[in-house]
């Protein structure tokens, strides 16, 4: 099971942290690259050397957040014993974390919904988060998890995150939906 570990320079880390902090305070549409450069104490040219667009930057911020989240779950002392309970635990944790990081999730969703082709590579990296989280829960390599099941769960997760952001769904409903679909797709036993 691959452990997600980004190798970032201290400058990239400063930029990511600054962007994360700003995303907690402002709507994605209001965020300016200049504000991020100032918060990170780097020049605009330096910022643009690492990230040509705001979408690329926030895809990387989301990936950074996701890898940190993955590591927290991986390091958890008490994980449920059965695959089904571990999958349910992971899915519940994803939604709880998304609820606590609503502004970051909103920024990420804004990037996706704007279909930011400029951040295609970064979004491809972000799409590895769900497979790695399920790999952690199932204690098996990503390659052994049915690809179609992963795609369906990612789509339902994305739909649930959008519903949470728009206040059209509550967290419990999203978790229940994800857990039911996971049970069906992954044929999990108790």
Question: Can you walk me through this structure?
Answer:
There is one protein chain. With 190 residues, this protein is mainly α. It has a domain at 55-186: Tetracycline Repressor, domain 2. It has helices at residues 10-23, 33-40, 44-50, 54-75, 83-100, 102-113, 120-126, 129-138, 147-165, 171-186. The longest helix is centred in the middle third of the chain and has 22 residues, at 54-75.
First-to-last CA distance? 23 Å
| Main pleated sheet | none
The SSE order reads HHHHHHHHHH
Shape: globular
What is the number of E strands? 0
Task: Bin the strand percentage.
Answer: under 5%
Task: Give the rounded overall mean pLDDT.
Answer: 84
Q: What is the CATH topology descriptor of the domain at 55-186?
A: Tetracycline Repressor, domain 2
Question: What is the correct CATH architecture of the domain at 55-186?
Answer: Orthogonal Bundle
Find the CATH superfamily of the domain at 55-186: Tetracycline Repressor, domain 2
Uncertain residue segments: 1-5
Cα Rg? 17 Å
* Percentage of residues in helical conformation: over 70%
Structural class: mainly alpha
CATH classification, class level of the domain at 55-186: Mainly Alpha
Q: Determine the number of helices (DSSP H or I, runs of at least 4 residues).
A: 10
């Amino acid at each position: 099971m691959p452990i997600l570990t980004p190798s970032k320079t201290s400058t990239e880390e400063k930029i990511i942290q600054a962007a994360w902090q700003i995303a907690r305070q402002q709507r994605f549409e209001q965020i300016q690259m200049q504000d991020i450069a100032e918060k990170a104490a780097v020049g605009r040219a330096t910022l643009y050397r690492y990230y040509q667009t705001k979408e690329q930057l926030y895809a990387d911020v989301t990936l950074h957040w996701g890898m940190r989240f993955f590591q927290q779950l991986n390091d958890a002392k008490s994980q449920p014993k059965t695959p089904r309970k571990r999958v349910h635990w992971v899915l519940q944790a994803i939604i709880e974390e998304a609820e606590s990081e609503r502004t970051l999730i909103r920024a990420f969703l804004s990037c996706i919904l704007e279909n930011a082709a400029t951040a295609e590579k970064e979004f491809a990296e972000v799409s590895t988060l769900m497979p790695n989280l399920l790999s952690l829960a199932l204690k098996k390599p990503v390659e052994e998890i049915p690809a179609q099941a992963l795609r369906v769960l990612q789509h339902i997760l994305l739909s649930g995150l959008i519903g949470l952001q728009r206040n059209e769904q509550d967290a419990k409903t999203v978790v229940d939906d994800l857990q039911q679909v996971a049970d069906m797709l992954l044929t999990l036993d108790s």
